[in-house]
Amino acid sequence: MITVVGGTKGGSGKSTVATNLAIMLAGAGRDVLLVDADDQETSTDFTNLREANRPGGAGYTCVALTGAAVRTGVQRLAPKHEHVVIDTGGRDTISQRAALSICDIYLVPFAPRSFDVWTLDKVAELVEEARTINPDLKAFAFINRADPRGSENAEAAEMLKSKPAFTFIPTTLGTRKAFGAAAATGLGVVELRPQDPKATEEIQALYGYLFDTAKTSSTNPAGV
Ligand SMILES: Nc1ncnc2c1ncn2[C@@H]1O[C@H](COP(=O)(O)OP(=O)(O)OP(=O)(O)O)[C@@H](O)[C@H]1O
Ligand SMILES: [Mg+2]
């Protein structure tokens, strides 16, 4: 199973989501490969910090790949792992297209702000293009960094729902300090103490939507 966390907007939460999902999958006993396909190397830096802080190591394997090597490298390494999670950069790079060409799931976080949602058409085009060579690709969009109040969340949700290229995930991650606080110490938000119950519940809901095999196909559209 290969999951790409992508999109063309910087700072939407790709690395936050990719690292948290990798940690949660590993925590559930899966053999996980986290691929850092962004030359900013956020996931690599995070994993180095995590390894330094945890006697047992990160709990997953992390490799950095760029450009066409994202395709060839992941094709070579994926059979050795149960789950591959790819963190892509915030631009339409060769790496992102390479990741899209071989993944099962493409997961795109959107912040409910105009500049972010304006990239939706571009990302939908990338998905349609990728489906010509990867027809089974499942693409999901969800709201990250939701506003605590106001109408922007609902407006962004309507925009995301209107795009046939994506399945809209109704689970939202709020703007919560716990995500940054956990990342700063090499932890997933579910591992942070004291725990932020809302952040934990939200990331668990996203994880459950994507990966909970106990669920029926109607509540687990990724079918994994
Ligand atoms: N739900 C959230 N609540 C609060 N802060 C968040 C949330 N999601 C992400 N952030 C913060 O926003 C910043 C950008 O997040 P992140 O690095 O995950 O984005 P990115 O999409 O990977 O960025 P880039 O495009 O540069 O790779 C980080 O400081 C992160 O801690
Ligand atoms: Mg990133």
Automatic annotation (TrEMBL):
InterPro entries: CobQ/CobB/MinD/ParA_Nub-bd_dom, DNA_Partitioning_ATPase, P-loop_NTPase. It holds the Pfam family CbiA. Residues 4-174 form the CobQ/CobB/MinD/ParA nucleotide binding domain. It comes from the Bacteria. This is Chromosome partitioning protein ParA. The lineage of its organism: Bacteria, Pseudomonadati, Pseudomonadota, Alphaproteobacteria, Hyphomicrobiales.
